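R.M. (postdoc): so does anyone remember the format we settled on? I'll just put the structure tokens first.
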């Protein structure tokens, strides 16, 4: 069986604007806040603090965007995964639920503003997101999404069969949910742009600087790397699914779920005029998701979760991706070549919402984005910056919790849930006499 490409062979690495020049930490620095991790969460935290005159140092083990921020599919849809808004209110309680709902559903305002204000070159397109209904019964769920998301200020609507086909080019859907504020991008380009913005605002970024430990030094914290150290009043860990060291047991606060992303060759203009002609992001609506969109070169970038041979056998995976794409878009006549394959890792939590941990007085960590990377990571920086600036915990948008390990069942529950969704969707389609995708 073939191996998937490493990070340096992903589409984003091949096409993103070069990263800003940085180097490893090889000295002793002092700061108000030390941020560990240069993904979206860490960089937006540092950016918010630097803009307010806080002396902030960011330490990154690899390079800016190396983890999930540079490996995701580039979708930017400000919604929640799995749980409905009503369920979140019950689960989180007030005022936490309403605060987080507001931050998440308005996250693309923050994304688009940072891209605009710092002239970030990241292929940003804000042309909407469509979740399709492959069977008539799925429309009831989508109607519920319209009502609940619009009630909190989002701009979404239910679209009929004719409009979903006009927007996406696919004749397979009975209707869909259109979220007009969603967008897509080159996610590594965005991460690198945020890194440049942090440096532009006076923040300090050191890459190739893995944190080996944190210890008290007087009334402050000393963050140690192989060749240097940062002494700071406060420390923020924002390493997400790529947490490997730095604070005891932080890497046990989540469980990993892998996802793969792949990209075709640039499609010819005739095909592009018929497939996603309005450059939207498309979700086929099944629980075992197939999500896709274009990049700036006209490549279809699609993602799914590994399941069985899918994600292990490259030839088989290539066939699955092609068959699903051509089933959704039978007008595709040209051969499909999947020229890029790569994996990302999600830091999964039971609640599928981020968790803010108080590790010690003056030290916090945030993990558990659970796959809502671009918009969620971009808005979390505002919450962590507020924590670092001394906003009372009772006024934050996330409750500060003691560090606790993710339950063991999270090692397998998300995968079982995907299989359950796949089975349920197929059975429902059979009952309703709807077409079933290949390999479903």
């Amino acid at each position: 069986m073939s191996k998937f490409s490493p990070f340096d062979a992903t589409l984003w690495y091949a096409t993103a604007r070069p990263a800003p020049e940085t180097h490893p930490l090889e000295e002793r620095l002092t700061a108000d806040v030390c941020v560990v991790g240069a993904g979206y969460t860490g960089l937006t935290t540092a950016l918010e603090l630097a803009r307010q005159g806080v002396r902030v140092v960011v330490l990154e083990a690899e390079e800016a965007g190396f983890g999930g921020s540079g490996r995701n599919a580039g979708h930017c849809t400000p919604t929640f995964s799995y749980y409905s808004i009503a369920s979140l209110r019950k689960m989180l309680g007030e005022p936490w639920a309403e605060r987080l709902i507001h931050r998440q559903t308005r996250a693309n305002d923050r994304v688009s503003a940072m891209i605009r204000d710092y002239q970030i070159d990241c292929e940003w397109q804000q042309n909407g997101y469509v979740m399709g209904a492959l069977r008539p019964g799925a429309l009831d769920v989508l109607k519920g999404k319209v009502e609940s998301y619009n009630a909190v200020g989002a701009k979404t609507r239910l679209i009929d069969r004719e409009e979903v086909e006009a927007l996406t080019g696919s004749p397979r859907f009975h209707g869909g949910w259109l979220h007009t504020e969603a967008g897509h991008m080159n996610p590594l380009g965005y991460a690198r742009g945020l890194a440049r913005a942090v440096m532009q605002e006076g923040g300090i970024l050191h890459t190739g600087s893995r944190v080996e430990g944190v210890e008290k030094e007087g009334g402050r914290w000393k963050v140690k790397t192989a060749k240097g150290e940062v002494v700071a009043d406060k420390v923020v860990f924002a390493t997400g699914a790529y947490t490997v060291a730095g604070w005891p047991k932080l890497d046990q606060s989540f469980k990993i779920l892998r996802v793969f992303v792949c990209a075709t060759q640039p499609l010819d203009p005739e095909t592009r005029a018929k497939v996603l002609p309005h450059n939207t992001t498309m979700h086929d609506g099944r629980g075992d998701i197939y999500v896709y969109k274009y990049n700036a070169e006209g490549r279809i970038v699609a993602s799914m979760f590994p399941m069985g041979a899918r994600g292990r056998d490259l030839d088989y995976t290539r066939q699955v991706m092609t068959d699903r794409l051509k089933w959704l878009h039978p007008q595709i006549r040209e051969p499909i070549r999947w020229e890029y394959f790569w994996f990302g890792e999600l830091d999964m939590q039971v609640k599928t919402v981020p968790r803010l941990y108080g590790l010690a007085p003056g030290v916090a960590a945030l993990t558990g984005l659970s796959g809502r990377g671009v918009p969620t990571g971009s808005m979390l920086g505002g919450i962590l910056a507020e924590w670092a600036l001394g906003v009372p915990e009772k006024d934050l948008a996330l409750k500060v919790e003691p560090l606790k390990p993710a339950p063991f069942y999270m090692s397998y529950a998300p995968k079982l849930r995907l299989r359950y969704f796949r089975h349920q969707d197929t059975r429902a389609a059979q009952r309703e006499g709807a077409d079933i995708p290949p390999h479903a």
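R.M.: ...and that's the designed sequence above, right after the tokens. Also worth knowing: The radius of gyration is 21 Å. The CA atoms of residues 66 and 378 lie 16 Å apart.
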